[in-house]
Design a protein that fits this description.
The chain is an alpha+beta fold and 204 residues long. The chain is 17% helix and 45% strand. It folds into two domains: 79 residues, Roll (duf1285 like fold), CATH 3.10.540; 94 residues, no CATH class.
Protein backbone atom coordinates (compact mmCIF):
# COMPACT_ATOMS: atom_id res chain seq x y z
CA UNK A 1 0.00 0.00 0.00
CA UNK A 2 1.47 3.35 -1.03
CA UNK A 3 2.42 5.66 1.88
CA UNK A 4 0.48 8.58 0.40
CA UNK A 5 -2.62 6.37 0.26
CA UNK A 6 -2.29 5.50 3.94
CA UNK A 7 -1.86 9.17 4.83
CA UNK A 8 -4.96 10.14 2.85
CA UNK A 9 -7.06 7.56 4.74
CA UNK A 10 -6.03 9.14 8.03
CA UNK A 11 -6.80 12.62 6.72
CA UNK A 12 -10.16 11.72 5.12
CA UNK A 13 -11.44 8.61 6.94
CA UNK A 14 -15.12 8.85 5.95
CA UNK A 15 -15.06 8.91 2.14
CA UNK A 16 -17.89 6.68 0.79
CA UNK A 17 -16.95 3.37 -0.81
CA UNK A 18 -17.44 2.86 -4.55
CA UNK A 19 -19.05 -0.23 -6.11
CA UNK A 20 -19.41 -1.45 -9.70
CA UNK A 21 -17.05 1.00 -11.38
CA UNK A 22 -13.94 -1.16 -11.63
CA UNK A 23 -13.57 -4.74 -12.84
CA UNK A 24 -10.84 -7.33 -13.28
CA UNK A 25 -11.44 -9.31 -16.47
CA UNK A 26 -10.45 -12.86 -17.37
CA UNK A 27 -7.20 -11.69 -18.97
CA UNK A 28 -5.98 -9.74 -15.97
CA UNK A 29 -6.99 -6.35 -17.36
CA UNK A 30 -8.50 -3.64 -15.19
CA UNK A 31 -11.68 -2.23 -16.72
CA UNK A 32 -13.49 1.03 -15.97
CA UNK A 33 -17.26 0.56 -16.00
CA UNK A 34 -19.27 3.77 -16.23
CA UNK A 35 -23.00 3.99 -15.54
CA UNK A 36 -23.91 2.96 -19.10
CA UNK A 37 -21.68 -0.13 -18.90
CA UNK A 38 -23.15 -1.10 -15.54
CA UNK A 39 -26.76 -0.60 -16.62
CA UNK A 40 -26.26 -2.63 -19.82
CA UNK A 41 -24.09 -5.38 -18.31
CA UNK A 42 -21.11 -4.39 -20.47
CA UNK A 43 -17.50 -5.22 -19.63
CA UNK A 44 -16.31 -1.59 -19.72
CA UNK A 45 -13.16 -0.01 -21.11
CA UNK A 46 -9.71 -1.50 -20.56
CA UNK A 47 -7.45 0.81 -18.56
CA UNK A 48 -4.29 1.12 -20.63
CA UNK A 49 -2.50 3.92 -18.75
CA UNK A 50 0.57 2.11 -17.41
CA UNK A 51 1.09 4.33 -14.35
CA UNK A 52 -2.56 3.90 -13.35
CA UNK A 53 -2.52 0.11 -13.73
CA UNK A 54 0.64 -0.05 -11.62
CA UNK A 55 -1.00 2.19 -9.00
CA UNK A 56 -4.03 -0.11 -8.86
CA UNK A 57 -1.79 -3.17 -8.53
CA UNK A 58 0.22 -1.67 -5.66
CA UNK A 59 -2.94 -0.78 -3.76
CA UNK A 60 -4.96 -3.94 -4.43
CA UNK A 61 -6.29 -5.48 -1.22
CA UNK A 62 -8.94 -7.70 0.32
CA UNK A 63 -11.17 -7.40 3.38
CA UNK A 64 -12.42 -10.06 5.81
CA UNK A 65 -15.54 -10.65 3.68
CA UNK A 66 -13.46 -11.63 0.66
CA UNK A 67 -14.20 -8.37 -1.15
CA UNK A 68 -11.27 -7.18 -3.27
CA UNK A 69 -10.73 -3.48 -3.76
CA UNK A 70 -8.40 -0.78 -4.98
CA UNK A 71 -7.58 1.81 -2.30
CA UNK A 72 -7.67 5.01 -4.38
CA UNK A 73 -6.41 7.53 -1.87
CA UNK A 74 -9.08 7.74 0.83
CA UNK A 75 -11.71 5.98 -1.32
CA UNK A 76 -12.13 2.21 -1.46
CA UNK A 77 -13.12 1.10 -4.97
CA UNK A 78 -14.49 -2.45 -4.80
CA UNK A 79 -13.72 -4.64 -7.80
CA UNK A 80 -16.05 -6.85 -9.80
CA UNK A 81 -14.19 -10.08 -10.54
CA UNK A 82 -15.06 -11.69 -13.87
CA UNK A 83 -13.34 -14.90 -12.76
CA UNK A 84 -11.04 -14.93 -9.72
CA UNK A 85 -9.06 -12.39 -7.63
CA UNK A 86 -5.88 -13.31 -9.49
CA UNK A 87 -5.10 -13.97 -13.13
CA UNK A 88 -1.77 -15.72 -13.71
CA UNK A 89 0.57 -16.24 -16.64
CA UNK A 90 3.30 -18.83 -17.03
CA UNK A 91 6.68 -17.18 -17.39
CA UNK A 92 9.80 -19.18 -18.32
CA UNK A 93 12.74 -18.28 -16.10
CA UNK A 94 15.93 -19.98 -17.28
CA UNK A 95 15.12 -23.69 -16.94
CA UNK A 96 12.15 -23.14 -14.60
CA UNK A 97 8.69 -21.66 -14.82
CA UNK A 98 7.20 -18.86 -12.74
CA UNK A 99 3.59 -17.85 -12.27
CA UNK A 100 3.02 -14.09 -12.22
CA UNK A 101 -0.25 -12.41 -11.29
CA UNK A 102 -1.80 -9.33 -12.90
CA UNK A 103 -0.03 -7.39 -10.13
CA UNK A 104 3.34 -8.92 -11.14
CA UNK A 105 3.57 -10.80 -7.84
CA UNK A 106 4.75 -14.40 -7.53
CA UNK A 107 2.06 -17.07 -7.24
CA UNK A 108 3.35 -20.35 -5.76
CA UNK A 109 1.17 -23.23 -6.95
CA UNK A 110 -0.11 -26.11 -4.82
CA UNK A 111 -2.40 -27.66 -7.43
CA UNK A 112 -4.71 -26.98 -10.35
CA UNK A 113 -8.42 -27.24 -11.00
CA UNK A 114 -10.35 -27.68 -14.25
CA UNK A 115 -14.00 -26.59 -14.56
CA UNK A 116 -16.90 -27.65 -16.75
CA UNK A 117 -15.80 -25.23 -19.52
CA UNK A 118 -12.19 -26.36 -19.60
CA UNK A 119 -10.83 -23.35 -17.71
CA UNK A 120 -7.73 -24.01 -15.64
CA UNK A 121 -7.36 -22.51 -12.18
CA UNK A 122 -4.22 -22.60 -10.06
CA UNK A 123 -4.51 -22.86 -6.30
CA UNK A 124 -1.59 -21.71 -4.21
CA UNK A 125 0.07 -19.07 -2.09
CA UNK A 126 0.30 -15.39 -2.96
CA UNK A 127 1.35 -12.45 -0.84
CA UNK A 128 -1.52 -10.02 -0.58
CA UNK A 129 -2.65 -7.03 1.41
CA UNK A 130 -5.49 -7.43 3.90
CA UNK A 131 -7.65 -4.75 5.42
CA UNK A 132 -8.31 -5.31 9.11
CA UNK A 133 -10.57 -3.21 11.29
CA UNK A 134 -7.67 -1.82 13.26
CA UNK A 135 -7.23 1.94 13.35
CA UNK A 136 -3.52 1.89 14.18
CA UNK A 137 -2.55 -0.74 11.55
CA UNK A 138 -5.48 -1.18 9.11
CA UNK A 139 -3.46 -3.04 6.45
CA UNK A 140 -1.17 -6.04 6.72
CA UNK A 141 0.61 -8.22 4.18
CA UNK A 142 0.81 -11.98 4.40
CA UNK A 143 0.88 -15.10 2.28
CA UNK A 144 -2.56 -16.51 1.67
CA UNK A 145 -3.98 -19.59 0.00
CA UNK A 146 -5.94 -18.28 -2.97
CA UNK A 147 -7.07 -19.14 -6.48
CA UNK A 148 -6.04 -17.77 -9.86
CA UNK A 149 -7.40 -18.27 -13.36
CA UNK A 150 -4.69 -19.30 -15.81
CA UNK A 151 -4.56 -16.86 -18.74
CA UNK A 152 -6.05 -18.52 -21.81
CA UNK A 153 -2.89 -17.85 -23.83
CA UNK A 154 -1.11 -20.35 -21.58
CA UNK A 155 -3.57 -23.24 -21.92
CA UNK A 156 -1.51 -24.95 -24.63
CA UNK A 157 1.64 -24.76 -22.51
CA UNK A 158 -0.25 -26.10 -19.49
CA UNK A 159 -1.57 -29.02 -21.55
CA UNK A 160 2.03 -29.97 -22.36
CA UNK A 161 2.76 -30.14 -18.63
CA UNK A 162 -0.38 -32.11 -17.73
CA UNK A 163 -1.39 -35.76 -17.71
CA UNK A 164 -5.17 -35.95 -17.62
CA UNK A 165 -8.11 -38.30 -17.88
CA UNK A 166 -11.74 -37.36 -18.33
CA UNK A 167 -13.88 -37.06 -15.20
CA UNK A 168 -17.66 -36.70 -14.89
CA UNK A 169 -17.74 -32.96 -15.60
CA UNK A 170 -14.14 -32.07 -16.36
CA UNK A 171 -10.63 -33.51 -16.17
CA UNK A 172 -8.40 -34.85 -13.43
CA UNK A 173 -4.83 -36.01 -13.25
CA UNK A 174 -1.56 -34.24 -12.53
CA UNK A 175 0.80 -31.66 -13.97
CA UNK A 176 4.51 -31.05 -13.80
CA UNK A 177 5.58 -27.87 -12.04
CA UNK A 178 9.36 -27.59 -12.40
CA UNK A 179 10.60 -30.57 -10.34
CA UNK A 180 7.25 -31.35 -8.68
CA UNK A 181 4.16 -33.28 -9.72
CA UNK A 182 1.03 -31.41 -8.60
CA UNK A 183 -2.61 -32.55 -8.64
CA UNK A 184 -5.16 -31.53 -11.25
CA UNK A 185 -8.72 -31.95 -10.01
CA UNK A 186 -12.19 -31.15 -11.36
CA UNK A 187 -14.36 -28.38 -9.94
CA UNK A 188 -17.54 -26.58 -10.93
CA UNK A 189 -16.98 -22.87 -11.52
CA UNK A 190 -19.82 -21.96 -9.14
CA UNK A 191 -17.90 -23.57 -6.25
CA UNK A 192 -14.82 -21.36 -6.57
CA UNK A 193 -15.98 -18.26 -4.69
CA UNK A 194 -17.14 -20.12 -1.60
CA UNK A 195 -14.21 -22.51 -1.50
CA UNK A 196 -11.59 -19.78 -1.83
CA UNK A 197 -13.50 -17.06 0.03
CA UNK A 198 -13.87 -14.24 -2.47
CA UNK A 199 -16.80 -12.07 -3.56
CA UNK A 200 -17.15 -11.88 -7.36
CA UNK A 201 -19.54 -8.91 -7.16
CA UNK A 202 -18.91 -7.02 -3.91
CA UNK A 203 -21.80 -5.20 -2.29
CA UNK A 204 -22.05 -2.81 0.60
Amino acid sequence: MDPQVLRSIVKWPDVPHCFGWLALDRRGQWRMRDEYAQQNQLSGNVIRHEALTEFIARNYACDASGRYFFQNGPQRVFITLDATPWIVKLNPDSSNLKLLTQCQSIFTPAGALSDESGNIYISGLVEQTFYEDNQSHPFSKKEYLSIALLHDHDLDLFSELAQVEESACSFKGSWQWNDKKLPLDPIHSQELAQRFHFAPKPTD
